[in-house]
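Researcher: Please translate sequence to structure tokens.
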Amino acid sequence: MRVVIADDDAVVVESLRIVLDAQPDIEVVGCGTDGADAVRLAADSAPDIVLLDIQMPGMDGLSAAERILASPEPPRVVFLTTFSDDEYIVRALALGAAGYLIKQDVAGVAPALRAVMAGRSVLEGEVLERAVALGAGVPVAEKPDLTTVFSQLTDREREVVALIAEGLDNREIAAAVYMGDGTVRNHISSILAKLHLKNRTQIAVAYWRALR
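Model: Translation complete:
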């Protein structure tokens, strides 16, 4: 696979380049220091995957991903970042990113990229399908269809789910659908209970999975 790396930390870029280039099935075809570099390299180098940091000077990773993924035949985009904030994860998935990895173990990046090339999504180093299993201990093969699961929600709850997936916080959701903050919290609690999920990030992940 052909990979482009964009990160404003030169040490991270060099470490990734060395580790990935050492893999027999991976070729690093370009390295950049900001989002603008990533967009240019994605257009010029025909990579299979663009590995992006989120916070970079100038154009950030999320803005770069939006441009890259809007191209006619876009590469897959995987974020590698120190930021595990819910909002970043939700926005990354909303854009159509294939993965979101935390900078902890550079050696784990190559297996994650292989998983992405195999058609899977990865989240924080784990295959996405396992990260959002509907119910503790439920094997992947036994998970219910998410379309069916969402049908258990009320129209209002499905509306809240969609807004969570767009990255809105509780106050923004309340303003968008004209309800109180407490009512939003109650809807989210009900959604989590019905879907057997733990947090709003998993709600967003489940939503974007259902659309794929």
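Researcher: Any highlights?
Model: The first helix runs from residue 10 to 21.
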